[in-house]
Specification:
The protein is of the alpha+beta class. The chain is built from 17 helices and 17 strands.
C-alpha cells in the first residue's frame, strides 16, 4: 500500500460522516478565523493591569537591530506566558499559535492577521515562531549573533517577588511562608543533573516559597544539595520585600523535616516577628521521650476502634547540630498499622501572642493539626504549577534556560491565580485549580473579525460557562489597577 502524504490532501473537499437520520453530516474548514482561546482577553487584561509582561521585559537586554524587530520583548514574553496559561507548554506549539488572530490580539498586535509583516513568507503569521522564542530562552548561554536577548536572573527574581508580594493582603496580620523542594526529572545529559536517591532518578531540586496560593520564590537548584540549601538567603530576600509592604506583619516559616536545620532556626530567632514550625525527623531519643504518650494512645485506641492520638511537648536539643534547646511537639499516634510517632519543632509560644483573639491556637494539638498539617495546601499549589502549567518542563541543556522556563511558568501561574483571586471570589470556582479555571473560563471558541474601527470577537453561544467569563470581565473592568500595583 503506498504511503500517504498529508500535504497532498485537497483541503477544499468536504468531509462526509455517517448520516444523522434524514440529515447528512458534512464538515469542512471554511468556518472563518476562529480560536479556541477566548480567555486570552481576560489574561491580557490582568497582565496589562498588573504590568507583568512589561516589568518582566525590563529584566532583559534587547541588542537586536531595532529597524528589523517585529516582536518586542514584551510581546515575546506575553506570547510565551499566555501560551503556558492556556495549556501550550511546548515551544513547538507556537508554530501553530502564531497564526491565531485572538492570541495576537491578546499579545497586543494591531494587525492580528499579520498582513503587515516585513517578509512575504511571514504574512498571515502575526506572532513569533518557536525558533524566536527559543532564542529568547537560550540567549544567556549562546552568545552569538543569533542570540541577542540575554536576561538578568537577579532582576527576574526580584520582579517575581515584587509582583507576588503585591498580591498579598494589605490588611494581613500574619503571613505563613511555606517552604518546599520538589524534584523535577531531567530529560538527558543536562547541566546540573544529579541523581537523587529519594526520587530514584536524575532530577533538579527547585526551592519554592509560597504564601497561601501565591508563589513568591522559584529557584532552580541541582539535587546534589539537600532541601534546605540556600533557603536562608532566599528568606532574607522574601522577608525584606514583605516588610517593605507590610511592616508590622508576623511571619511564620513552615516546612517539613528537610528544612529543619539549625542555620534556618537561628536566623528566624534573630529576626523580629519571624517564627517557625518545622517537621523534625524522628530518632530513638525522640521516640523514647514519647514512650509514655504512646502507651496512653494505645490504651485509647482499644476504646476507639484502633485509632488514637496523644500530644506531648518538651524541650529538646540534638547532641551536636543544634545550638540550643527548642520546643518540640510530639504526636503519639496509634493506627491499625501500628505506631506512628511524629514531631515538629517550633519557636511559637504555647500561650500565644498578647493581641491574638485566640490565645490557644499554638497549644500542642492545634499547632500540629491546624497549623503544621495545613502545609499540605501549599503542595497542592505546586501540583498545579507542575500538572496544569508544566513547571517541570525543563528540557533545554542549560540550567540558566531551564531556570527561565521555571520562572515563566511561575508568572503564568501568577496570572491565573490573580484572575481567580480578583474576579472569581464568591463563585464555585473560588478554590478551583488552574486547570479547572482554564477549562471553564479560558478555553472558549471565538470568531475574530477585524474592520477599520474595531476587532469584533464573537464567543461561542454554546459555551457552557458563559456566566464565569462574563462575570470575570465585569470584575476586571471595575478594578482599581493603580491601587493593585502599589
Amino acid at each position: 500500500m503506498p504511503k500517504l502524504n498529508p500535504c497532498e490532501l485537497d483541503l477544499t473537499q468536504p468531509i462526509l460522516f455517517d448520516s444523522l437520520g434524514p440529515r447528512k453530516v458534512v464538515a469542512d474548514f471554511n468556518g472563518g478565523d476562529l480560536s479556541s482561546d477566548g480567555g486570552v482577553l481576560l489574561l491580557r487584561q490582568i497582565d496589562r493591569g498588573l504590568g507583568v509582561s512589561r516589568m518582566l521585559a525590563g529584566c532583559f537586554c534587547d541588542s537586536r537591530h531595532q529597524v528589523f524587530v517585529e516582536h518586542s520583548l514584551e510581546d515575546l514574553l506575553a506570547q510565551r506566558i499566555y501560551g503556558l496559561s492556556l495549556g501550550y507548554e511546548d515551544l513547538n506549539d507556537h508554530d501553530q499559535l502564531r497564526c491565531d488572530p485572538l492570541m495576537a490580539v491578546g499579545v497586543g498586535k494591531e494587525d492580528p492577521f499579520g498582513m503587515d509583516r516585513l517578509l512575504p513568507q511571514h504574512r498571515g503569521k502575526a506572532l513569533a515562531a518557536a525558533s524566536t522564542l527559543n532564542r529568547l530562552e537560550l540567549s544567556n548561554n549562546c552568545m552569538d549573533r543569533y542570540h541577542k536577548l540575554p536576561h538578568d536572573p537577579k532582576a527576574i527574581e526580584e520582579c517575581l517577588l515584587k509582583l507576588a508580594v503585591r498580591s498579598l493582603n494589605k490588611d494581613a496580620q500574619e503571613i505563613v511562608l511555606d517552604l518546599d523542594a520538589m524534584g523535577h526529572t531531567v530529560h538527558g545529559l543536562q547541566e546540573g543533573r544529579y541523581f537523587n536517591g529519594y526520587y530514584d532518578e536524575y532530577v533538579y531540586l527547585p526551592l519554592y516559597i509560597v504564601a497561601g496560593r501565591v508563589v513568591l520564590w522559584a529557584q532552580l537548584r541541582s539535587a546534589e544539595h539537600d532541601a534546605s540549601f540556600g533557603v536562608v538567603d532566599a528568606l532574607r530576600s522574601v522577608v525584606k520585600e514583605i516588610r517593605m509592604r507590610l511592616p508590622g506583619v508576623r511571619i511564620i516559616v513552615r516546612g517539613d523535616s528537610g528544612f529543619c536545620r539549625d542555620e534556618l532556626m537561628v536566623w528566624c530567632e534573630g529576626q523580629e516577628e519571624v517564627h517557625y514550625v518545622l517537621g523534625l525527623a524522628k530518632n530513638p531519643v525522640l521516640v523514647e521521650r514519647l514512650r509514655a504518650s504512646l502507651s496512653d494512645a494505645r490504651a485509647k485506641a482499644c476504646l476507639t476502634g484502633g485509632n488514637a492520638r496523644v500530644f506531648q511537648q518538651f524541650q529538646y536539643a540534638t547532641e551536636k547540630t543544634w545550638s540550643r534547646e527548642r520546643r518540640v511537639v510530639g504526636k503519639a499516634e496509634i493506627t491499625p498499622q501500628g505506631e506512628n510517632p511524629r514531631f515538629v519543632v517550633t519557636s511559637l509560644p504555647e500561650e500565644g501572642f498578647a493581641k491574638d483573639s485566640d490565645p490557644e491556637r499554638f497549644i500542642s494539638r492545634r499547632l500540629y493539626e491546624e497549623l503544621y498539617c495545613e502545609r499540605g495546601n501549599m503542595e497542592n499549589v505546586l501540583k498545579q504549577q507542575v500538572l496544569d502549567l508544566k513547571g517541570d518542563r525543563m528540557s533545554t541543556h542549560y540550567m540558566a534556560s531551564n531556570q527561565l522556563r521555571l520562572w515563566l511558568s511561575t508568572f503564568a501561574y501568577l496570572l491565573v491565580e490573580r484572575l481567580q483571586a480578583l474576579t472569581l471570589q464568591g463563585t464555585d470556582l473560588a478554590n478551583a485549580t488552574a486547570g479547572t479555571i482554564r477549562n471553564k473560563v479560558l478555553k472558549v471558541a471565538a470568531s475574530v473579525k477585524v474592520s477599520v474601527r474595531r476587532i469584533y470577537v464573537q464567543l461561542s453561544s454554546a459555551f457552557p460557562w458563559q456566566r464565569y467569563w462574563r462575570w470575570s470581565s465585569q470584575q476586571l473592568a471595575q478594578l482599581n489597577w493603580v491601587e493593585l500595583r502599589t
